[in-house]
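Team,

Forwarding the record for the chain on the shared tracking sheet. I've put the sequence and predicted structure together so nobody has to dig through attachments.
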Amino acid sequence: MSGFARDPKYYGDRLVYEPLERKWAGYHARHCGCGLDWLEGHAVPAGFTVIPRGRTGYYGLVGPGLTEGVDEEALTTNALWEAVTGTPGTQTWHEPVHITCRSPESEAARRAENEKVYGPRRERAEKAKAEPATDAQVKYLITLAEKVGKERFDAEFAKVIKGSDIAPRTPRQRCATAAKRLTKARARKLITALVGHD
């Protein structure tokens, strides 16, 4: 999302405006349509400076009326709007400043919180890659195979087992037997694919 930000790691002590590229490109195309890049053709000539944020492709803008010479309690993007669209800005609401602290302590806390939330999910996903398909999954796959036909079952089965050591279903092999060779994760993928063709 676009927004005003302070991020000492990337911008030092500067207040910046982080624009959402497609949002501002859309504003420019709709209200100007000159064919120029909105940033190079309008924002930079108007006195705004682009500050890269590492090598991510993201960046912040600083400049008069946007982040310089402004009341931080009453921030708007009117100055940038006028530069990009050629019409006066009419934003009457004020935007907050998003402050990101990237000290070693805060980064460690963020990683710990992420591990707490996503760690169990990753463990379950890894476990599902090795555990055999459940009886309920196999039973449901048999029902789906009857509905969609063996040809569709085989096509989707081949996609699901790609890159694994699971062999395709042989012509005389029952779909149930083939389904029992799947892991929980691959059975889930096959069910999703077959339900889409149900």
